[in-house]
Each structure stands twice: as structure tokens, then as C-alpha cells.
Specification:
about 190 residues; 2 strands; mainly alpha; 7 helices; two-stranded antiparallel sheet
Length: about 190
């Protein structure tokens, strides 16, 4: 496993997502997590703009995904769909027709396919497991990154794992844009 220093080395790229018309493949093809360079910066700017426009009040007893759904004007019942999509978001995790169907329901709830829809779902999905893990750690008095490992493509084309122990929110161009929100939420547990 490599250290987080490689996250600032442009020779180590994120695993790319090819263009796709539907399902989780569509989402991956439209979010900053699965691209680099100017396209990643453009997509990330959309996520950052979305985060600035939201009013999210951290609540120590509420489910973060349900709070984010409310802040985005989406129904709380969509939390089950967020859970299904988050579980299959990374291409190396088990995929399912149920997760693709859940993604399509989220797209419909957001008003159809667009960059804004992709940004909204990206925020929900990437925050889902990470926020739950972060809050569970804080409640247990534990430290460490909520997501302990990420992946990159090394210069030789192999997929490598990167240890996030010293960079709990990542570093470099793919640093977590929701860090301030996550830290604010964790702070209300103290």
C-alpha cells in the first residue's frame, strides 16, 4: 500500500469511468471522482457550488443522508436508494440491477439527467458511507480516516491502494470537498 503522498503526484491517476447512458455507469461518468485534469476541476466546482448553496444543520441523532436529502429538497424515502447506490458506487464493489434501478429513481427525483443531478447524487452517495463511518468513529472515541483506503492507477498501469491514515479527507485535487461539513457534524458529537 502506498502513502497518501501519491495523491499529489499527477502520474497517479484515478481509475477513469467511460461514458455511459444509464445506471451507475452514467453517474461514474459524470462525477469528479472518476476523472482527472480540467474535467475533474469543472465537475468538482459544481460540487463545491452545491455545497455552498445548501443549508445543512448537523444533528447528532439524525441520519446524515436523510438530512442531506432534505437539504437538497429530496424525499427522506430516497435514503434506501442512496444506500443501494453507495454500496455499488465504486466499480470494484459488487454491482447489481437493484443499485442501477435505485440510481434511476434518484435521477428521476432530481429532475432528470444533468450535471446538477450528477452533482447532487454524487454528494449524497459519497457522503453516505463516509459520514456514517466518521460519526461511528467519533461516537466510539476513535480516530482515523472514515475511508481508510483509496485507489489510483500507477504510472505502470497497475491499480494501487493508497493509505489515507495521514490524510483522512484525502489530499491533492481529489481532496474531499465536504470536509468542512463532515468536521462540523463530527463536532456536534463532542
Amino acid at each position: 500500500m502506498l502513502t497518501s503522498a501519491v495523491l499529489e503526484d499527477p502520474r497517479y491517476r484515478v481509475p477513469p469511468a467511460p461514458p455511459a447512458a444509464s445506471g451507475l455507469a452514467w453517474l461514474r461518468s459524470r462525477v469528479p471522482r472518476f476523472c482527472d485534469g480540467p474535467e475533474q476541476a469543472r465537475r468538482r466546482a459544481g460540487i463545491e457550488h452545491l455545497l455552498r448553496s445548501l443549508t445543512v444543520i448537523p444533528n447528532p441523532v439524525a441520519d446524515p443522508s436523510e438530512v442531506l436529502l432534505g437539504a437538497l429538497g429530496l424525499p427522506a424515502e430516497s435514503a434506501d436508494d442512496v444506500d443501494l447506490v453507495a454500496a455499488a458506487y465504486q466499480p470494484h464493489t459488487p454491482q447489481s440491477a437493484d443499485a442501477d434501478a435505485a440510481l434511476e429513481r434518484l435521477v428521476a427525483a432530481c429532475g432528470g439527467r444533468s450535471d446538477v443531478t450528477a452533482a447532487r447524487i454524487c454528494l449524497l452517495v459519497q457522503a453516505h458511507a463516509a459520514m456514517r463511518a466518521l460519526l461511528a468513529q467519533r461516537r466510539a472515541g476513535a480516530a482515523g480516516p472514515p475511508v481508510p483506503v483509496t485507489r489510483r492507477i500507477a504510472p505502470d498501469g497497475t491499480v494501487v491502494e493508497v493509505d489515507l491514515a495521514d490524510a483522512p479527507f484525502g489530499r491533492g485535487p481529489h481532496t474531499c470537498p465536504g470536509r468542512a461539513l463532515a468536521e462540523a457534524w463530527a463536532a456536534v458529537l463532542r
